[in-house]
């Protein structure tokens, strides 16, 4: 397993996911996703589109095909209702020798390696544990930036800043 040292701490990276599925859907969708990830200038940042649709329509396959077209690694983070915000970053693990080892999430690994991370089923994260727990208060009214999600979603984030 590949690792990097950041500020004196060894961080084990999650390996990229190997998905050899073929995208058989509309090529226009793939072109749109590739356009969202396009970086034309060093000052540009790739967009992080949210792919929304019913289960099984190919959201993860679309992201995989787009990443493969760009020849960049794909990392998939499978969210559940038990996923906590810290799970999106680094997980400390106690090894057999009673030492602490840190493992990067697929998101952090994609950021370090310059890949694409798919936050699969992000809508399953509970409001209490996930990013939806952030609230905004304006003029005494409190609201959440996240609407309740009744559909399956994928957030395909291109962590590659120079592709």
From TrEMBL:
Pfam families: AAA_5
Bias kind Low complexity: ranges: 149-163
UniProt-listed SUPFAM superfamilies: P-loop containing nucleoside triphosphate hydrolases
Residue span(s) of domain ATPase dynein-related AAA: 51-126
Residue ranges of the region described as Disordered: 123-163
Top-level taxon: Bacteria
Protein name: AAA family ATPase
């Amino acid at each position: 397993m590949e690792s990097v040292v950041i500020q004196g701490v060894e961080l084990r990276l999650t390996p990229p996911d190997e998905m050899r599925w073929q995208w058989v859907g509309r090529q226009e969708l793939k072109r749109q996703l590739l356009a969202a990830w396009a970086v034309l200038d060093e000052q540009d940042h790739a967009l992080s589109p949210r792919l929304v649709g019913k289960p099984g329509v190919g959201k993860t396959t679309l992201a995989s095909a787009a990443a493969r077209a760009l020849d960049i690694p794909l990392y998939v983070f499978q969210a559940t209702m038990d996923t906590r915000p810290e799970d999106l970053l680094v997980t400390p693990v106690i090894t057999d020798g009673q030492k602490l080892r840190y493992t990067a999430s697929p998101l952090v690994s994609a950021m370090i390696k310059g890949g694409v991370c798919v936050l699969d089923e992000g809508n399953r994260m509970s409001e209490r544990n996930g990013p939806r727990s952030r609230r905004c208060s304006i003029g005494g009214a409190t609201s959440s930036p996240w609407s309740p999600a009744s559909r399956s979603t994928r957030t395909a984030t291109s962590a590659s800043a120079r592709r």
